[in-house]
Design a protein that fits this description.
The complex is a heterodimer. Chain A has six helices and 15 strands. By secondary structure, chain A is of the alpha/beta class. The longest helix of chain A is centred in the first third of the chain and has 17 residues, at about 35-55. Chain B is an alpha/beta fold. In chain B, the strands form four sheets. In chain B, strands 7-11-6-1-4-5-12 form a seven-stranded parallel sheet. In chain B, strands 15-14-16-17-18 form a five-stranded parallel sheet. The chains are: A alpha/beta, B alpha/beta. Chain A: This is Electron transfer flavoprotein subunit beta.
């Protein structure tokens, strides 16, 4: 089985979010980048398939040279090879088109992308890849097993979960549950050394429409200070929630 | 070229998000000088939608669509959009609608903006404000395609009634066998409880509850408020509560009217998951807990003393105000 894991290179969750250039660009100064958490669950599940079922795992990212340390980290965790599509990932459709091209040319059976990235939170790329390729698609996937061509999976739904069956080739939008957080892999020294010798292929982007663009960023208005209510005066809390906030 | 909304339903009834989407669509339609068409699937009585500004309802009744199948539903929405010649397709941000939106956008060759939090900033060029960076910022996104798909963030607009009624029309889209590549084998829903997705109020517990045996405190408070229950990441990691209740960056996002956090210190990842909630109440015995910095109201004290009292007082309040 050939697996492609789509990796977003995103600011660490504790990063301060600031903008530059007239609030038109994200300020990268002092920001640590990591593998997008939803993608990390998918990567670890892919490595499980590699170890248990002999799958070959490729990781891919659409981005500039600055994303290569993130791809190297994925290689150190255990991916067999990496691909970087050399383009600025500005629009979900543009990114999906690049990834669809990599999938078509690479003949992947299973494509695992995180259900959403923690920077632009678009949540659109996995579905768009599936739409472009006409493949089976499963979003919010929390469990995945593959037997030959047959797939059993669990998907989160509002207020519960559903079990589904489908076949390869398949695109999934994955999340926590594909593996548990305690099972996420950390690169060890051997992995880091081996990663240096693994192939990182750079591809130039194909022509694709750019349907949307981020024109400006804004930060939320500063919040007023918390109103503290004494533990002996809970009637006041109820009064505030009813008369001031009007939420009960 | 009316605006098309997908009015989501479950078990034969519209979800509340359908009414919020209709209210939002009405306002967008006014600014574009057009009307609102709603698409419904397997709902017999659709009249309620008319109260929220919908002008026309396309009713699809098809046994093949009895269970949710994203590809088939996306195909139906595409055909409805083409039939109506619509330029703007609106979906909500439930798990199912998020699943659908990108498939619909690709099939209509439409630019797609998700997590939209307000009316368009401008309609020419078409620009909308979206949540980004896990609710730590907003992004004004411009959509340059002829057809546009928007995903409206939950609880970001509100529900508003309008005068008027909607015309109803049966709609029979073509549904092919290749729409069913993913088959639903079984569905497990937590019954008898309000789900986080449907809740206006969420009561959430953290490690301060000390153990799963104390969860009754959270459930009792939630019950009196008609709220859903949730938890912090350590609580789901410890196995006290299922992952489906974990709120935060890698858990569920919560955009409710009221979020009550009990015994949760407020890790940045947790706060990112609840930032879109309108009013936040924090109850914690540590006055230095970071959660107080983002809370609207706070009580410093022992949850084991405060919560039972608060629950009793709310019961009395509800009895008076029902």
């Amino acid at each position: 089985m050939k697996i492609l894991v789509c990796i977003s290179h995103v600011p660490d969750t504790t990063s301060k979010i600031n903008f530059t250039n007239g609030d038109s660009e994200f300020d990268t100064a002092g920001v640590q980048y990591v593998i997008n958490p939803n993608d990390e669950f998918g990567l670890t599940r892919a490595i499980w398939f590699q170890e248990q079922q002999g799958a070959n795992v490729t990781v891919v990212n659409v981005g500039g040279p600055d994303t290569e340390p993130t791809l190297r980290k994925a290689l150190a965790i255990g991916a067999n090879e990496a691909i970087r599509v050399n383009a600025n990932p500005t629009d979900g459709f543009f990114v999906a088109k690049q990834l669809a091209e990599v999938i078509k040319n690479g003949g992947y059976d299973l494509v695992i992308a995180g259900k959403e990235s923690l920077d632009y939170n678009g949540g659109m790329v996995p579905g768009m890849i599936a739409g472009i390729l006409g493949s089976n698609f499963l979003n919010s996937c929390t469990s995945l097993t593959v037997d030959g061509n047959n797939v059993k999976a669990v998907r989160e739904i509002d207020g519960g979960k559903e079990t589904v069956s489908t076949t390869l080739p398949l695109i999934i939008g994955g999340q926590k549950g594909l593996v548990e957080e305690k099972d996420l892999r950390i690169p060890n020294m051997r992995g880091i050394m081996t990663a240096r010798t693994k192939a990182l292929t750079i591809l130039e982007p194909v022509d694709a429409a750019v349907n949307t663009k981020a024109v400006k960023f804004e930060k939320p208005a500063p919040k007023s200070a918390v109103k503290l209510v004494s533990a002996d005066n809970l009637d006041e809390l109820i009064n505030l929630l009813h008369n001031e906030a009007k939420v009960i | 070229m009316s605006i098309l909304i997908y009015a989501e339903s479950a078990e034969g009834k519209f979800k509340k998000v359908a009414f919020e989407l209709a209210s939002y669509a009405k306002k967008v339609a006014e600014s574009l000088g057009t009307t609102v068409t709603a698409l419904t699937v397997n709902i017999s009585d659709v009249s309620e939608l008319g109260k929220y500004g919908v002008d026309k309802i396309l009713k699809v009744n098809n046994d093949k669509l009895a269970g949710f199948t994203a590809k088939a539903y996306a195909d139906v929405i595409k055909q409805a959009a083409e039939k109506e010649g619509t330029k703007v397709v609106l979906l909500s941000s439930t798990t199912d609608s998020i699943y659908l939106s990108s498939l619909v956008a690709v099939s209509l060759e439409a630019g797609f903006a998700s997590n939209v939090v307000g009316l368009p900033v401008s309609t020419s060029p078409f620009q909308v404000k979206r949540n980004a960076f896990s609710n730590k910022a907003f992004n004004i996104t411009q959509i340059d395609t002829d057809v546009k798909v928007l995903g409206l963030a939950k609880n970001s607009y509100g529900i508003f009634e309008s005068a008027g009624s909607a015309a109803e029309e049966d709609f029979n889209p073509t549904i092919g066998d290749n729409d069913f590549g993913v088959k639903v084998e079984s569905v497990e829903k937590v019954s008898g409880k309000v789900s986080i997705a449907d809740a206006d109020i969420v009561v959430s517990g953290g490690r301060g509850l000390k153990g799963p045996e104390n969860w009754g405190l959270i459930e009792d408070l939630a019950a009196v408020l008609g709220a859903a229950t949730a938890c912090s990441k350590p609580v789901s990691d410890l196995g006290w509560r299922p992952h489906s209740e974990h709120v935060g960056q890698t858990g569920k996002p919560v955009a409710t009217n009221l979020y009550i956090a009990v015994g949760i210190s407020g890790a940045i990842q947790h706060i990112a998951g609840i930032n879109s909630s309108k009013v936040k109440v924090v109850i914690n015995n540590d006055p230095e807990a970071p959660f107080f910095k983002v809370a609207d109201y706070g009580v410093v004290g022992d949850a084991f003393e405060i919560i039972p009292q608060l629950t009793e007082k709310l019961k009395a309040f509800k009895a008076q105000h029902s």
